[in-house]
Design a protein that fits this description.
Chains A, B: Belongs to the pyruvate, phosphate/water dikinase regulatory protein family. PSRP subfamily. Chains A, B: Bifunctional serine/threonine kinase and phosphorylase involved in the regulation of the phosphoenolpyruvate synthase (PEPS) by catalyzing its phosphorylation/dephosphorylation. The structure is a homodimer. Chain A is α/β, with parallel strands linked by helices and about 270 residues long. The first copy, chain A, folds into two domains: about 1-105, 3-Layer(aba) Sandwich (Rossmann fold), CATH 3.40.50; about 115-260, 3-Layer(aba) Sandwich (Rossmann fold), CATH 3.40.50.300. Helix content of chain A is about 45%, strand content about 15%. A four-stranded parallel beta sheet of chain A has the order 2-1-3-4, with helices on both faces. In chain A, strands 6-5-7-8 form a four-stranded parallel beta sheet, with helices on both faces. In chain A, helix 1 (about 15-25) links the parallel strand 1 and strand 2 (about 30-35). The two termini of chain A are about 40 Å apart. At the A-B interface, helix 1, strand 2, helix 4, helix 5 and helix 6 of A face helix 1, strand 2, helix 4, helix 5 and helix 6 of B.
Amino acid sequence: MRTVFYISDGTAITSEVFGHALLSLFPMQFQHRTISFVETVEKAQATKALINKVCSQNGEPALVFHTFVNPEVREIIDSCDGVIYNFLEHFVKPLEQELQITACPKAHRTHSINKNSYDNRIDAVNYALANDDGSSITNFEQADVILIGVSRSGKTPSSLYLAMQYGVKVANYPFTDDDMENLSLPAFLKEHKKKLFGLTIDPQRLIDIREGRLAHSQYASARQCRMEVREVEKLYKQEKIPFINTTKLSVEEIAAKVLSQTGLQRYKY
Amino acid sequence: MRTVFYISDGTAITSEVFGHALLSLFPMQFQHRTISFVETVEKAQATKALINKVCSQNGEPALVFHTFVNPEVREIIDSCDGVIYNFLEHFVKPLEQELQITACPKAHRTHSINKNSYDNRIDAVNYALANDDGSSITNFEQADVILIGVSRSGKTPSSLYLAMQYGVKVANYPFTDDDMENLSLPAFLKEHKKKLFGLTIDPQRLIDIREGRLAHSQYASARQCRMEVREVEKLYKQEKIPFINTTKLSVEEIAAKVLSQTGLQRYKY
């Protein structure tokens, strides 16, 4: 199996995203290795030695995705036995021409603290935790969006992802069995109706997830799951609340759809 | 201000990372706009019209970062008035040659559900939530790593980030004022000593964060913050627990350092 290295003087997140996006186009298995914080000549040399050892053991060159801007470290990595893919070098010159400004390598710290947005993100994570699962219904004023749905339809991970990645303040509220008879919007949600965004899920997937948590319970029964999903979807339609089915979606996709459909601003930049 | 578009037929996360990494090299401000799920010819045409309108209004071409693999949609976006940056096209051919296999555009869904790893990530998020802030000290057996530190040193966001992005199971345990007299490792931590990873923080930053939460409290006082930081750092050194100072680190950097220093496997792929 081909070994792939993702290397950077920072977190290596950019190298990983860059490499994964490309390798996902190839129907093959790879052995992945990430080496972050290669900030010194010594660490670069050790990394080069490791790559060379892997190339020699495997009898084929490793693929090396990196984003170094420090020329000293970069030259060491570039001289290894692996095949180098560095997307920065292809795009920096054209961008310099278009923007009429010289790139400034020292600014290259994509995933470090950005004063303007970082506290927003941490505040949003704390907000999501404090307003998870209907634990507080008095702070909805501050929410950018309120995710609603039955238990285990994806509200909590989606709220946390939106907060962590984009600094969006997301509360979430679960409809439980107690709400199901004559399901309607409680007053504390109704007054924030424009912020509501519904999640739904295929009943069979919901059964599987709930069985994993509370096997053989009424909570996980086919009848209960089907009824809950039917009732919330009816409510979303009646109240004209936008909603998506999360069955086949990752948290990344759910988050992107919520942002796209609500037109919410992202605070990451 | 130059407008930048990040466009994709999926979440557009890859386009954003790609564009941000490049633009972070330029000491300028940009106006950012993300357009996700451009999956149809109609949506591509609407997107092109929007880009053209922005270019015309601004009197300068927008920058357009995209990663389309569907040729029909891609040609429409490529024909807009913006300047196109598409990193896939530069690297697909060289990779095809190196791997001796043809790229398979349909597989391009970097941020969708990957059966093998996705459930791991959601399980890890649930684990992090259930084992946050010392709320449970009986599940440490299952932890990949246990973050320890004083209150507000970054344990919770870091735990959630490691879980969400990498599927790593992280518990965290706070040392509180009650622990401070003759601070030592409690037995339930001592038996998992190899999993312990310490966070520390500069006292002044800790004071600022705690003041934001509980102004004028003993909890936020300079004396208290300095004492707690001094005591935990002494403990880390005595017990030879690896630790990092989070004062100037983002959650991405904390996570990358924890992974790098513990040698933990990432489950994302």
